[in-house]
Write a structure and sequence with these properties.
One of its GO terms (molecular function) is monooxygenase activity. By secondary structure, the protein is of the alpha+beta class. The protein has 2 domains: 75 residues, no CATH class; 339 residues, Cytochrome p450 (Orthogonal Bundle), CATH 1.10.630.10. It has 24 helices and 12 strands. The chain binds protoporphyrin IX containing FE. The site of protoporphyrin IX containing FE has 21 residues, from helix 7, helix 15, helix 16 and helix 24.
Length: 513
């Protein structure tokens, strides 16, 4: 990979940027030169080939400041471009490690002081327990398939059903991304923390959570955050005290298992209420940062293809039941049948994530190690796995790799075995190995069930009554995993004729006969 920069483009970048960015640039540049001088080592013949910047020394750094997520670099970085090697890297998580960078980024993001930072970074020898290993276990345990997840699903879906039931028969205009953002954020807060919670009491905090999300990459750099990331900085200061109040009032008794078990682990390792509260903004953010953009694009893709809407309605109708109770007509969508009976909408979900979950996984190399017995990776280096690129590789997915074509997931069985295997390996929107996203089951349910109900029961159109289009994605900021639209999409939503007076509900219970 080579990136070119003319002197003019560098000058124009610097003059267009604010002075804090300029100072950041000078400091980072100086450090880089020193580090480069101190750290320059010969490349071992067993290592992968080196990609040098066009502009000696500073080319990669300019790339990082200018292109954020599209350009990650430090002293030594290995970019994994083959799905097979990506899985090998995920498997070798003991040496090709996420924990170090995750611990560092989490502490910086929420501005932990020395005490909490020491707790997070504590790594006992011989793999004994630590706060981070306990946290990992508790989070994966509470989001794994089973009764806790069913309860979480049912909490979030009840909330989302309320949002859909509020839609009237007369068409109303909604800014689609903002509407989804607000409903999912409030729904996640209600699910995680119970009611009342800080966001249900003050919905203005939704804005704070997303300001934090927007500035996350810069907050992690921790370079005068008050100036370089003013909104994210302010958001942290607003959200921490309201969560302290929440814990001090004992409202955490209404929280779901994930929040309760996280708290138990935190207390065991000596974190204070203030420190636990500092981290909450990152939890609400994690619950929505991928869910909202993917729900948005899934809706846009579907409603931009009228034939697809018709086919989906036929499929979804089969997993609903209609009843009248106390004079109220209710339509229930049976969640347990989604995956087994609705291959088309599941394919739409997979295809949306394939195109839209573009962020890279980043790892650090803890000791010299052979990747898949093929390449030597040196201690201290970084490994970047650009999963998004692998998911749209023409060689793997064919000439329509960049287009939305859910059928590809329905016809995979008819592909030659090696092509099928390559596609399975290249598809990793939830990462892989030890750090495979624990929220993936929840994400599937809360996105697919919501979109299914929207497709079956509602008409969506542009403000002038036309079909939706798929808006261009925004510039990918540092740390962003899923693409959001550059501009929001104003749409009209109304109930379909046959569902004008019904109450919608999600049935999270047993299979319908
Ligand atoms: C479409 C939605 C989602 C996508 C595409 C997604 C994707 C990912 C990916 C790729 C990772 C691994 C990062 C890496 O290895 O570098 C990850 C980790 C994580 N995700 Fe998700 N995620 C989604 C939804 C959720 C939800 C709803 C939650 C629930 C609260 C969640 C919680 C987490 C957590 C806690 C981790 C960190 C795991 C660890 O400590 O290693 N995610 N996610």
């Amino acid at each position: 990979m080579h990136v070119t920069y003319s002197t003019q483009s560098i000058v124009s970048f610097l003059t267009k940027s604010s002075w804090p960015a300029f100072i950041a640039f000078v400091v980072v540049l100086t450090s880089l030169l020193v580090l480069r001088f101190l750290g320059a080592k010969d490349v071992d013949p067993e290592e992968p080939p080196v990609v040098r910047p066009r502009i000696p020394f500073v080319g990669h750094m300019i790339g990082l400041l200018r292109h954020h997520n599209n350009y990650f670099t430090l002293l030594r970085i290995y970019i994994v471009q083959s799905p097979e090697l990506a899985h090998a890297a995920f498997r070798q998580s003991k040496t090709i490690d996420f924990e170090t960078i995750k611990g560092y980024a989490s502490c910086k993001a929420v501005a932990f002081g020395q005490h909490a930072t020491d707790v997070v970074n504590f790594r006992p020898p011989n793999g004994e327990d630590s706060y981070m290993s306990d946290l990992h276990q508790e989070m994966y345990g509470s989001l794994a398939q089973g009764p806790n997840l069913l309860e979480t699903n049912s909490r979030v879906l009840n909330y989302l059903a309320r949002s859909l039931n509020a839609i009237q028969t007369t068409p109303k205009e909604y800014p689609l991304f903002r509407w989804l953002r607000d409903e999912y954020t409030l729904g996640s807060a209600a699910t995680l923390y119970g009611l009342p919670n800080p966001l249900s009491e003050d919905p203005n905090l939704i804005e704070s959570v997303w300001d934090f999300e927007h500035d996350l990459g810069v907050l992690v750099l921790d370079f005068f955050p008050k100036i370089t990331a003013p909104k994210g900085y302010a958001a942290r200061n607003v959200v921490t005290p309201v969560f302290e109040k929440y814990y001090n009032a004992g409202l955490n008794k209404n929280a779901n298992t994930l929040v309760q078990r996280r708290e138990v682990a935190a207390r065991q390792w000596g974190l204070t209420t203030k420190e636990i509260s500092q981290a909450e903004i990152s939890i609400i953010m994690a619950a929505g940062t991928n869910t909202v953009p993917n729900a948005f694009y899934m809706i846009c893709h579907i409603f931009s293809q009228p034939d697809l809407v018709i086919a989906l309605r036929q499929e979804i109708n089969k997993i609903t039941s209609r009843k009248t109770r106390d004079g109220i007509e209710t339509v229930a969508l049976h969640i347990s049948m989604l995956q087994s009976h609705c291959p088309l909408i599941t394919a739409c979900f997979n295809e949306t994530l394939r195109l839209n979950k573009t962020g890279a996984a980043v790892r650090t190399v803890l000791e010299d190690v052979m990747l898949d017995n093929r390449y030597l990776l040196k201690k201290g280096a970084f490994v970047q796995i650009p999963t998004g690129l692998l998911q749209s590789d023409l060689n793997v997915w064919g000439p329509d790799a960049k287009q939305f074509n859910p059928q590809r997931f329905l016809t995979q069985n008819s592909l030659p075995k090696d092509v099928r295997k390559a596609q399975n390996q290249a598809y990793m929107p939830f990462g892989g190995g030890k750090n495979l996203c624990p929220g993936r089951h929840l994400a599937y349910t809360e996105i697919v069930a919501f979109v299914a109900m929207l497709v079956l029961g509602f008409e969506l159109s542009t403000s002038d009554g036309g079909k939706l289009h798929v808006p261009k994605g925004e510039f990918q900021r540092l740390g962003v995993a899923s693409i959001s639209p550059e501009k929001d999409l104003d749409i009209l939503i109304t109930r379909r004729k046959e569902f004008e007076d019904v109450t919608w509900e999600f049935d999270t219970g047993t299979v319908m006969e």
